Task: structure prediction
Amino acid sequence: MEVIRSIIELRQAIKRYKVNHMVDSKIGLVPTMGYLHGGHASLMTRAREMSDVVVVSIFVNPIQFGPGEDYETYPRNEERDLALVEIQGADIVFIPTVDEMYPQPTKTKIIVSERTELLCGASRPGHFDGVTTVVSKLMNIVQPDLAFFGMKDAQQIAVLQQMVRDLNMNVEIVPCPIVREKDGLALSSRNVYLSSEERRQALVLSRSLREVKGELDDGKTVTASEVREKLTSMIVSSPLAVIDYVQVLTFPELILLQDDELLADVHDQVMMAVAVKFGTTRLIDNILFMPKEALSLV
Ligand code: AMP
Result:
């Protein structure tokens, strides 16, 4: 595995792969912010299955953090990350410094409208502009055929799919399922911030989402507002939970369902998405439901 820190060397390494192997080698990119866990590993496994050359990037991107967010304290452990990426069989790991990626403050940003204006985009102004800008830079540098992202950040996938389509970028965004701990907690680099009591109470997120999805799968007819109320009341039963949002919307279009809309009647895939703070740690989680009406159209 090659560990590369400069953009020029990364471009050269990818060119070398294309010359030495096949001109049409499929390049797979897995962008991460490091402090890697099983969720990141699952993206790398998928990338290994679907690509000839796997490039993993590790970069804590300052421009996707807002003022007062955790950019400085975001967990980092390069040595451990390199070992994990190596085990996953990546060919190249790209670890640039902030100066390498942003030698001057960027005057150009990629901004996706609509899909960024709700959920995490509403709570974290500018966050997705930072994400789409850095992902575009990585795409321009690596020129991947495939790019792998986790459904844990479902809105990010919806936003990137919109960007790739709107800008005719020659890359396929490959969504990968959420990896969870045995007890249901979605893996996240930020889980290390949780105290043991916060972590215990945070299980309410996956539990509530799974329970509502189970009822929907069993054919229960419920409206969007009933789903939101049920999720909310389950979540607030954990005293440490402070809700940022509980939403029911189509995926990947991210259109909020009307309060009285029956989920079973929706013609698209439906996502239930939550963001909840436990202490200073903001966690997100989601689950998808495929209504029969939508299935009949597939
Ligand atoms: P991050 O390092 O948190 O920016 O995440 C890098 C990539 O890993 C993103 O595409 C995330 O959606 C994905 N990811 C993070 N946590 C998980 C998880 N629990 N399951 C699947 N993918 C994940």
